[in-house]
C-alpha cells in the first residue's frame, strides 16, 4: 500500500478505524517500526519505495526524533510491515507528549551527593533485586518493568534508604517508554483529605481532559503507582488501604503498585501480593560506588576496599549507606575500619563538606551553634525521637516539639530557639529528610547511633535509670543497645548485660528447646537472624535476644542445639546463604519453632550461664570509662 498511489483506499480504511473522525496526527511506537523492519530484513530505502514515505522521515520516526506522523503514512508503513495500525501507532486520545512532559519531572530528584541540585535518577539508578515477601520464598529477580510482577495488586516493601521511591519512579519512566499504558504516579503523602479515587481523577484530568477514569481503568489503559504508604498519617492508613483494595476489586485487571516500609501495616493486608527489596550484597558494592563516585574516587576505593570492607560490610546494605561511605571517603580519603568509625565520622563529614564546597560557600548555623554544640543537639534530638517515636515518620511540628524538649530538658540550651535549631540540623547535616512537613531520618541506624552517643555521655545516675528501663523495654531500644555495647561498654556491661545474663539463669528459662528434634532449613532472603517462636503450650517468647543479650550466631547455635543438630545447621550456613530454621516437635506437629537468621542471633540458652557471666565480668574489668554530661534525663 502506497500512501500516494492508494490514497482513496487508505482514506476508506482510516474512516473505518476512526468512525469518520480521522485525527490529524498519531503518536508513533518507534521501537515497533524499527524492530519489525529489522525482523523482515527491509532496508529503510526499500520501505520508503514500497510505502511512499520518504526515508528521512522513516529514520526520524525510528530514532524518536519525530514522535508523530499522519495516519495515511503510518497505515502505509503498517501494511508493508505486516502489522496493524495499532501496532505502530497510538489510536487513543492519549497525548503522549503531555504524559512524557508530566512524568519527566519524576526523573529529577535531590540526592545526598547534591542536596540542593536536581539530578536525573537514571544517572545513578541501580537495579534492585526483589523476593516474594513470604518465609519459604527462594527465588529473587531484578524487575525491569511493571509487567514483571505476577499480581495486579502489589506491595513493594523496603526499609529506608533501599530506594523504593526511586525504583517506582524508574518503573514509571520505563512504562512511558513503552507507550502502552499511562502511569498514574501518586505520592500518598500529598493525598491530604482526598480519596485515592479523587487523586486518580485529578491526575488523569491533568494529563488530558478527555480521559474518563472509569473507562481507562476498565480498559487497563493506565497503571496506578502509589508511593510511600508509610508516609500517610497513621490514623488514615487503614482507610487508604481499604480504598486501594476496593479499586482493585472494582477493576481487577488494573495493575496497582504501592511502596511502603515494612512496619506501616500494609503487610497485614491479605489482598496485596508482597515483594521485598533485598539488601545489597558484597558484589553490589563497587557497582553502586561507581554510580556516585568520580572515576578517580571509585578506582581508589576499589584499591583500598579489600583491607577493611569486611569490617563495615554489615552497614553497607542499602544504596543510601553506600552514598554515605562515598562522602566519607571524599572528605577523609580513608574507608572506615569499623561500623562505629563509619557513624562516628558521619556527622563531621556532612557538616564540614559545606565548608569545602566547590562554590566556596559556607553553611553556618543560624542558631549560632558551633560544631560541638550542633553535634550535641543532633544527638539529644536522636535520643528524644527514639524514645517518643521510634521509626515513625514525624510531622515537622512534632519534631520541633521534640527539639524543644531536647534543648530545655536534656541540654539546657535555653538560648536557642527550637525552630531555628531544627532548621540548622536539617539543612546542615542533611541526615533528616523533610518531605512536605513529614520528617524522617535517612536511615534508622543514623538515629540509633546518635541516640547511643547521647546516652554514652549522660551521668551515672541517669545511665542507671536508662539501663533499668531498657531491661524491660529492650525491644524498643534494640538498635541503640547494639551501639551502646561499644560506645558505653563499661556501663552497658555493668548495668545491662550482667543483670540480663543472670536473669537467664532463673528456672523459668530452663531448656526451652530440648524437645525440638527435627530441623528443616530453607533459604529466605539475602540478609543473614532474628528469632521468634512459641512452644507447644502456645506461650510466646519475645523476639529473642532473650531480653537484650546478643551473641554471635555460630556460638548461639552451638550453645542452643545438641552437637548433631548444630553441625547440620552450621553446615547449611557455611555457604553464607541466609536460612530460616523450622524446629518441629515430632510429638506435636503444631509446635514449631521458627528462626530466621539475620546477622547476629539474639538467642541465649541457660546453658553456660556462669561462663557468660564470667566473660561479661572480665570485659567489664577491661572496659573504658566515659564522659559525663549533666542533663535532666527522662526515659
Q: Could you explain the architecture of this structure?
A:
By secondary structure, this protein is an alpha+beta fold. It is built from 25 helices and 20 strands. The strands form five sheets. A seven-stranded mixed beta sheet has the order 7-6-12-8-11-10-9, sandwiched between helices. A hairpin with a 5-residue loop joins β17 and β18. It is elongated. It starts with 6 loop residues before the first helix and ends in a 13-residue tail after the last helix. Mean pLDDT is 75; it is low at 354-362, 504-553, 555-562, 572-610 and 622-632.
What about the largest sheet? 7 strands, mixed
How does the overall form come out from the CA principal axes?
Answer: elongated
Mean pLDDT: 75
> In percent, how helical is the residue content?
40-55%
* Structure summary, number of beta strands: 20
Amino acid at each position: 500500500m502506497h500512501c500516494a498511489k492508494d490514497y482513496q483506499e487508505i482514506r476508506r480504511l482510516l474512516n473505518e478505524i476512526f468512525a469518520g473522525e480521522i485525527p490529524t496526527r498519531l503518536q508513533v511506537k518507534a521501537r515497533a517500526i524499527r524492530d519489525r523492519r529489522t525482523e523482515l530484513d527491509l532496508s529503510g530505502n526499500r520501505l520508503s519505495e514500497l510505502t511512499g514515505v520518504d526515508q528521512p522521515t522513516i529514520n526520524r520516526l525510528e530514532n524518536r526524533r519525530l514522535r508523530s506522523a499522519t495516519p495515511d503514512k503510518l497505515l502505509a508503513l503498517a501494511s508493508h510491515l505486516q502489522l496493524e495500525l495499532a501496532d505502530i501507532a497510538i489510536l487513543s486520545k492519549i497525548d503522549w507528549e503531555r504524559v512524557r512532559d508530566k512524568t519527566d519531572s519524576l526523573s529529577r530528584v535531590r540526592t545526598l551527593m547534591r542536596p540542593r541540585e536536581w539530578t536525573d535518577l537514571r544517572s545513578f539508578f541501580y537495579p534492585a533485586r526483589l523476593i516474594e515477601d513470604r518465609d519459604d520464598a527462594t527465588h529473587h529477580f531484578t524487575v525491569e518493568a511493571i509487567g514483571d510482577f505476577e499480581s495486579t495488586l502489589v506491595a513493594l516493601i523496603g526499609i529506608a534508604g533501599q530506594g523504593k521511591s526511586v525504583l517506582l519512579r524508574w518503573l514509571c519512566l520505563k512504562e512511558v517508554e513503552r507507550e502502552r499504558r499511562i502511569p498514574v504516579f501518586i505520592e500518598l503523602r500529598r493525598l491530604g483529605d482526598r480519596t485515592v479515587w479523587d487523586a486518580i481523577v485529578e491526575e488523569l484530568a491533568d494529563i488530558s481532559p478527555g480521559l474518563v477514569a472509569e473507562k481507562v481503568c476498565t480498559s487497563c489503559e493506565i497503571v496506578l503507582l502509589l508511593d510511600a504508604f508509610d508516609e500517610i498519617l497513621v490514623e488514615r492508613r487503614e482507610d487508604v488501604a481499604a480504598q486501594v483494595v476496593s479499586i482493585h476489586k472494582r477493576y481487577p485487571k488494573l495493575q496497582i503498585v504501592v511502596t511502603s516500609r515494612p512496619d506501616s501495616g500494609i503487610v497485614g493486608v491479605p489482598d496485596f501480593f508482597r515483594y521485598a527489596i533485598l539488601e545489597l550484597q558484597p558484589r553490589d558494592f563497587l557497582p553502586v560506588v561507581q554510580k556516585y563516585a568520580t572515576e578517580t574516587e571509585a578506582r581508589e576505593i576499589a584499591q583500598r576496599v579489600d583491607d577493611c570492607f569486611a569490617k563495615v560490610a554489615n552497614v553497607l546494605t542499602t544504596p543510601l549507606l553506600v552514598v554515605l561511605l562515598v562522602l566519607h571517603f571524599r572528605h577523609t580519603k580513608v574507608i572506615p575500619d569499623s561500623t562505629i568509625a563509619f557513624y562516628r565520622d558521619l556527622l563531621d563529614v556532612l557538616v564540614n563538606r559545606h565548608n569545602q564546597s566547590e562554590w566556596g560557600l559556607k553553611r553556618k548555623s543560624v542558631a549560632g551553634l558551633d560544631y560541638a554544640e550542633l553535634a550535641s543537639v543532633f544527638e539529644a534530638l536522636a535520643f528524644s525521637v527514639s524514645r517518643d517515636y521510634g521509626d515513625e515518620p514525624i510531622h515537622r511540628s512534632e519534631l520541633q516539639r521534640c527539639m524543644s524538649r531536647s534543648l530545655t530538658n536534656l541540654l539546657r540550651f535555653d538560648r536557642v530557639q527550637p525552630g531555628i535549631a531544627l532548621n540548622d540540623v536539617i539543612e546542615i547535616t542533611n541526615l533528616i529528610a523533610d518531605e512536605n512537613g513529614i520528617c524522617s531520618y535517612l536511615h534508622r541506624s543514623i538515629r540509633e547511633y546518635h541516640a547511643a552517643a547521647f546516652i554514652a555521655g549522660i551521668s551515672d545516675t541517669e545511665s542507671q535509670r536508662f539501663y533499668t528501663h531498657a531491661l524491660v523495654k529492650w525491644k524498643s531500644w534494640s538498635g541503640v543497645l547494639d551501639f551502646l555495647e561499644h560506645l558505653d561498654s563499661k556501663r552497658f556491661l555493668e548495668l545491662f548485660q550482667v543483670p540480663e545474663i543472670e536473669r537467664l539463669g532463673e528456672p523459668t528459662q530452663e531448656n526451652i528447646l530440648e524437645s525440638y528434634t527435627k530441623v528443616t532449613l530453607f533459604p529466605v532472603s539475602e540478609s543473614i537472624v532474628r528469632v521468634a517462636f512459641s512452644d507447644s503450650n502456645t506461650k510466646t517468647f519475645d523476639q529473642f535476644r532473650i531480653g537484650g543479650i546478643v551473641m554471635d550466631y555460630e556460638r548461639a547455635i552451638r550453645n542452643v542445639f545438641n552437637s548433631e543438630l548444630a553441625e547440620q545447621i552450621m553446615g547449611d550456613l557455611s555457604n553464607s546463604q541466609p536460612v530460616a530454621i523450622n524446629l518441629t516437635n515430632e510429638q506435636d506437629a503444631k509446635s514449631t519453632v521458627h528462626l530466621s537468621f539475620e546477622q547476629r542471633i539474639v538467642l541465649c540458652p541457660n546453658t553456660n550461664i556462669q561462663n557468660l557471666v564470667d566473660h561479661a565480668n572480665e570485659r567489664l574489668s577491661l572496659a573504658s570509662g566515659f564522659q559525663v554530661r549533666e542533663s535532666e534525663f527522662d526515659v
